[in-house]
Amino acid sequence: MHSLVKTTLLILLLSSTLLTQGCASSQGADNNGPFSIMNNLVIAEPLAINFKSEIAIARLSEVINRAKIPDEQRAQLFYDRGVLYDSVGLRSLARFDFSHALQLKPDLIDAYNFLGIHYTQLQEFAQAYEKFDSALELAPGHEYAYLNRGIALYYGARPELASLDFKAFHQKQQDDPYRLLWLYLTEYELDPIAAKQSLKQRAELVADSTWAKQVIFLYLGEISQGDFVKGLTKNVRSNKELTERLCEAYFYLGKYNQALGFRGSAANFFKLALSTNVYEFVEHRYAKLELDLMRTKKTTNTQP
């Protein structure tokens, strides 16, 4: 019942925001208009916490608390439990376990990477950079440390440095649309026109059959928001797959509307991404940070 109420409120918020923009706004609204988006809006059923994760957490806790094992093995157990805590949205408990793991085993690379992600979400960017730097010092080829440090630099208002990390990450797999999208979002901060030209060129390597290619088409202006939303259920085979897709789609719709200056719509799309409960996805992690940053900016702008 709580999820239903929350979802209904999100729909009403999104509807009221879109209506204030007008059906055929000259400020950059889609050809299909906000009514078309609302008529085709897809709402996800939030993912339930996997009971297997809860059982695994309980078993790991029992071993950690009772077993006499070497520090290196205990560190791995703390790290494994931290990953499970993170996957069910228990971020503070996850950070505690990752920190404890590093106290026992200071060269545990992935623990640095996870802590960097969490510090980014907390807007503690200096500590985030430090953790990612540590991970890359231990493993210079760690792909996702480049992604995550790039995201930290992006949200830390350092787009020039962020673009370097995203380029390094993109080079590892140039047909991955998500690597391309984060690079585009950063380059857009530096030069919107050049960023769109680069996006169009790089997107040629991304297969049209990949659903995230539709996000690229949206950003290039080749499809409208309404058409994008209409296609969200295409080739979806399960509720889990739909929920994960919507988590991604609503985050990128939030960024799209944010770039157009439609702050209300952007905020509501970020809330819809959060409502999916897909805690492990990058888009879910940073939808909350987007909202926090928008609130901070609004507060700053309204101060005398």
Can you describe what's shown?
Helix content is 72%, strand content 0%. It is an all-alpha fold and 304 residues long. Helix 15 runs antiparallel to helix 16 (282-302). The N and C termini lie far apart (42 Å).
Brief sketch in words of this structure:
This protein has 304 residues and is an all-alpha fold. The chain has helices at 2-19, 33-40, 51-66, 71-87, 91-104, 109-121, 125-138, 143-155, 159-172, 177-190, 192-202, 213-219, 225-230, 239-260, 263-274, 282-302. Helix 7 runs antiparallel to helix 8 and helix 15 packs antiparallel against helix 16 (282-302).
**Rg computed from alpha carbons, rounded to a whole number of angstroms:** 20 Å
Mean pLDDT, all residues: 87
| Portion in strands | under 5%
Secondary structure class reads mainly alpha
Give unreliable regions as ranges. Answer: 1-35, 299-304
Query: What would the principal axes of the Cα set say about the shape?
Result: globular
The total strand number stands at 0
Order of helices and strands: HHHHHHHHHHHHHHHH
- Note the main sheet: none
Distance between the termini: 42 Å
The number of helices is 16
Helix content: over 70%
